[in-house]
Design goal:
A hairpin with a 7-residue loop joins strand 2 and strand 3 (201-208). The longest helix is centred in the middle third of the chain and has 58 residues, at 211-268. This protein is of the alpha+beta class. It folds into 2 domains: 4-56 and 331-363, no CATH class; 60-329, no CATH class. It starts with a helix and ends with a helix. The chain is built from 12 helices and 5 strands.
Amino acid sequence: MQAPGQSQSSASEKQISLKDILIQLFAAIGFLWAKKWILVIAVIFGSALGFVYSLVAKTKYVANLSFVMEETKGSGLGAYAGIASQFGIDLSGGASSGLFSGDNILEFLKTNLIVERALLSPRTGNLKGTESLADLYVESHDWKKQWSKDPGLSDIKFSRENDYSSDPRKKLQRDSLLKVLYQDILKNVLAVGKPDKKLGFIVVTCISRNEEFSQKFATRVVGEAIEFYSKMKTKKSAANVAVLQAKADSIAALMNKKTYAAAVEADLNANPARRVTLVGAELASRDKLMLQTMYGEVVKNLELSKIAMSQDAPLIQEVDVPQLPLEKVKVRKSMGLLLGGIIGGSLVAVLLLAIRFYKSIFAD
């Protein structure tokens, strides 16, 4: 328990501290007021820079694409899975993956894999050999002029068909440029988020100088992600279907051979008086019956696997797709004047106060 004298001393220190703060605050205001003409010049200069920036800043185009995704919780084939497992067939399909669960999808859409696939996609439809979106992006930023200093970079084209695998040096340069594009897009172009954490809607935003690029890149990023995810989810089920289909085709071919062999044996040994002559036909018929039974089971499991694969496929539906013309984003002249003045005045005020503070320290 503190003594009364100590309590009064503590309160006095607090009052003195508050008083000092107020004194310093008013002193700073007075100091800035004395330098008001410097601040006025800084505000005018900042406004001028902001105005110039609003004139030279290029218009940017915003493309927003929203989609919703629903994953199946289970295939509903539990009753059949046990039966199928007796034949060595797994109907569980692709177990629920965590790739698109929670906020993982937000990072997945920004991975180098998806962004690079979207960049290398053709600019016009699915026409091979045409310009890619990466070429369009480079063109819209005039990067070719910067790269012209290096003869090896100016003629590089970005496409899935020509990856310069036959020229290791060109391939290395191309891959390095793709990394530069990826980093720039991740920093300045692409944004992925959820408007509401409680809902399953995901919005992909693309902001760039080129209207065509913004629209197509947002669409391609989502398209590539959906394609990759769908293949991943159904990969195991698709493998089961392929194995069962191959078995069904093989058994069907053997069954046809046995049917033909049984008919040939019956024609060659038509004498009923000799029973030994019927053995070949009976063996062929027995093999045919066994193959028919096997074929029926394989076909049944094949159909169940196809159902499992359809259940594994995720339901991803695009809701809002960007349509031309896109929303334009440009700094207005009035906004450039206002923000430039505020930023210019604030920076100079902070600089003046910092100089005053250091002078007071050295003076003490």
